[in-house]
Specification:
Length: about 270
Amino acid sequence: MKKEIFLKQFSKELEYLASKLFNVYEIASDYEIISYSEEFYTPNFWKKFQKKANGLNVITNGIFENSDRRQIAFVPDNFIPKNNEDFENFFDFPHKLLKISIASKFKEYRHKDFLGSLMGLNIKRELMGDLILENGAGYIPVSNKIADIISNELTQIGKAPCTVEIVDLKEIKNLPKYKYDDKLITVSSKRLDNIVCAITNISRNKVIEPIEKGKILVDYTKETDKSKLIEIGSLITIKGFGKYKLFSEKGETKKGKERLLIKKYI
């Protein structure tokens, strides 16, 4: 696959990361070896490939179940394990899971506090995966190339001292999981404007402007088409309201409207 064809799948603002991903693809294609990205890619990248990219298998991994940000591997057929039981452990993605613990009993630190302190180390966001908070600690997958930097240089979250440890993925029994608030909505169709109206309880006329101004993200990409049909599994981020997953269909009402289960990230 030529680079220009590969890059056409992505918008201009994603071109830098898309170019880095093409380099990973090119190594696997030219040398017929497994090639891994150092970067963690959002769904607007990895959903493009499904399971194949020009003859190469596409495997993604973000450590957590149903992770949004994932490293991507391009894998020739002869490297795919025949035994499905070994599949999960077969690929050696270049990442580590860090646990960041805070020594503070007086304040509950939030997602933005952890991420802000990490970004304060001048680390690129794409070298880190999803951040999940559990029992006062933050868990985040990171590229191997920055794991030691964070371990040695991250000393506090906000004003609270912290410690960083590398989690042994072979020893941990239960990985942290996302927490959601469930909401059942009723819509006439899966159009973006209908779904945003149902989530926010704002009238349809009033949601059109933020959509057209690019304040609504679908799978981390600005979506300005109010009539776009949203697929099950898509992520919808609404400025001022949070991030939601269009999780599943729940049948129809007597009037023929669709019932949908929405999960809000908390």
